[in-house]
Design goal:
The chain is an alpha+beta fold. The chain is built from eight helices and 22 strands.
Length: 420
C-alpha cells in the first residue's frame, strides 16, 4: 500500500509540474504577442499558411471574358459578358491549337478583321491587355508572337484552315494562318443561337470603342454582399506571410492599424482590411522570391509569383479569389494588379483601386497593397438599366467601352453599367 501511495503522489506531482510549465509557456507566448486579448488569434477562422515556390496554373487568375459567337451573320450574333469556366470549355482548345500552329501573315486593318467577323467566327475580349507570352502560357503553348493581346478571334474565311487574329489596345491587329480546320470553328458557331448581341461598330453609337461587345438584354446578376472575412486576423496573415506571429516588434497606431517590423520588412494591418507590405532589402523568405530561368523574370514568371502571393493571401484569410487585371513592365520589374469578380462580373472599388497591387523589382516582390474582402451572392437579382439606354449614355464619352461591374464602396455593393 505504501508503495502505491508513493507512486500516486509522484504521478500527481508530475502532473502539477506539467500544468505549471504549460501555464508559464502560455503566459510567455501571450506577452510576446498582443496580450491575453490576442488569444483568439491562436484559433484562426481561415487556413493559415502559404505555398511558396509552387508554380501556379495561370488559369486560376485569368478573369472572365466577353464572348462573341457568329454563325450566319445574317441572323445576328451571340454575345455574353463575363464568360468563363464551362462557357469556354469547347472554345479554348481551339485557340490553343491555333496559337500552337500560327504563322504570321501580317498586319491587318480594322476592315479586314470586321469582314472576318462577318464569317463564322469566335471572338474573345480578354477584358485586360496582356503580353502574348502570358496568354500562350495560360493556354499551354509557347509564345512566338511578341506582342500585347487584348482580344483574339478565329474566323472561318476559307474552305480549309481558320485564321487567327490578335488585337491590341493600341489598335494594331495581326493575322495568322493556322492548322485549325475551318470545321472546328463552324461546328461551334452553328451550334449557338444568336441573341441579338453585336459589336459597337455595327451600332448607331459611333463614339463607342468599335470592338465593345454589346448585349441586347442586361445580364441577370445577383445582388452581392461584401465584407471583411472572419479569417482576417493578425495571426493568419503573419503566419502566411512568413512573419513571426508572436513578435514583440509590433505596435498599434491611433486608428487601430497594427504595424509589424522585421527589418528589412514592414507590414501594416488595418482594421478596414487593408494590408501593406514593404521590403527595402533582401529577405530569406521564399514567398517573396520570383523564380526565373534567366537573370530577370519574364512576364509569365512575374505573374506566377504575384498570383502565388494572391493565393496565399486568399487562402490564409478565407477571402474571395483574385483575378489578373493589369500587368505593367518597367525598367527593372513589373507592377501587377488583381481584382475581385463574382459570378463572372468584376468588382471595382472607388478610384479604381485594385484588390491587390504587387510590385516586383529584380527577382523579388518588394511591396504590395492588399484589400481583403469576401463576397457572397444573394438570391435576389440586381435591377439593371436597359441595355440601349446604357449604350446611349456610354456613347457620350467618345472612345469608351461599356461593361457591367459591381462597385464596392465599403458599406454596400451595387451592380452598374460602367463605361470602361
Amino acid at each position: 500500500m505504501a508503495k502505491h501511495r508513493a507512486v500516486n503522489r509522484l504521478q500527481n506531482l508530475t502532473l502539477l509540474l506539467l500544468t505549471l510549465s504549460a501555464l508559464f509557456l502560455l503566459s510567455r507566448l501571450m506577452l510576446a504577442g498582443s496580450g491575453w486579448t490576442g488569444l483568439q488569434d491562436l484559433l484562426p477562422a481561415g487556413a493559415a499558411g502559404g505555398r511558396p515556390n509552387q508554380t501556379m496554373d495561370l488559369g486560376e487568375v485569368m478573369p472572365a471574358f466577353h464572348l462573341v459567337v457568329t454563325g450566319d451573320s445574317e441572323y445576328g450574333r451571340y454575345t455574353q459578358l463575363g464568360a468563363g469556366g464551362e462557357d469556354l470549355q469547347q472554345i479554348l482548345p481551339l485557340f490553343q491549337e491555333a496559337l500552337g500552329s500560327a504563322s504570321v501573315v501580317g498586319a491587318a486593318a480594322d476592315k479586314t478583321l470586321q469582314e472576318a467577323l462577318a464569317s463564322p467566327s469566335l471572338y474573345l475580349d480578354l477584358t485586360v491587355e496582356l503580353p502574348s507570352a502570358v496568354v500562350a502560357a495560360w493556354l499551354g503553348e509557347g509564345d512566338s508572337f511578341g506582342r500585347n493581346v487584348r482580344a483574339m478571334a478565329l474566323a472561318a474565311e476559307d474552305e480549309e484552315s481558320a485564321f487567327l487574329y490578335l488585337r491590341s489596345d493600341d489598335g494594331s491587329i495581326f493575322r495568322y494562318n493556322t492548322a485549325l480546320p475551318v470545321s472546328a470553328v463552324t461546328e461551334i458557331a452553328d451550334s449557338v443561337s444568336p441573341n441579338g448581341g453585336s459589336f459597337a461598330y455595327e451600332s448607331n453609337f459611333a463614339p463607342l470603342a468599335p470592338y465593345t461587345v454589346l448585349v441586347a438584354q442586361p445580364p441577370e446578376i445577383p445582388q452581392l454582399q461584401g465584407d471583411i472575412p472572419a479569417g482576417y486576423t493578425a495571426y493568419n496573415l503573419l503566419t502566411a506571410l512568413d512573419f513571426n506571429a508572436h513578435t514583440n516588434a509590433r505596435y498599434p497606431e491611433s486608428d487601430g492599424t497594427e504595424v509589424v517590423v522585421e527589418s528589412p520588412r514592414l507590414l501594416r494591418l488595418s482594421p478596414d482590411g487593408e494590408v501593406t507590405y514593404v521590403c527595402d532589402g533582401e529577405t530569406t523568405s521564399t514567398l517573396y522570391r520570383v523564380p526565373c530561368a534567366g537573370e530577370s523574370p519574364t512576364a509569365v514568371e512575374a505573374v506566377q509569383a504575384a498570383g502565388n502571393l494572391a493565393a496565399v493571401l486568399t487562402e490564409s484569410t478565407a477571402a474571395s479569389p483574385l483575378y489578373l487585371r493589369t500587368l505593367t513592365p518597367y525598367e527593372n520589374g513589373y507592377r501587377i494588379t488583381f481584382g475581385y469578380q463574382a459570378e463572372g462580373v468584376p468588382v471595382f472599388f472607388p478610384s479604381d483601386a485594385p484588390g491587390l497591387a504587387v510590385n516586383i523589382s529584380g527577382t523579388a516582390i518588394t511591396s504590395f497593397v492588399y484589400r481583403c474582402r469576401s463576397y457572397t451572392a444573394e438570391e435576389e437579382m440586381e435591377s439593371m438599366m436597359p441595355s440601349e439606354m446604357a449604350v446611349a449614355i456610354a456613347s457620350l464619352s467618345p472612345g469608351s467601352g461599356l461593361s457591367v461591374g459591381y462597385v464596392d464602396n465599403g458599406t454596400e455593393v451595387a451592380a452598374r453599367w460602367l463605361p470602361r
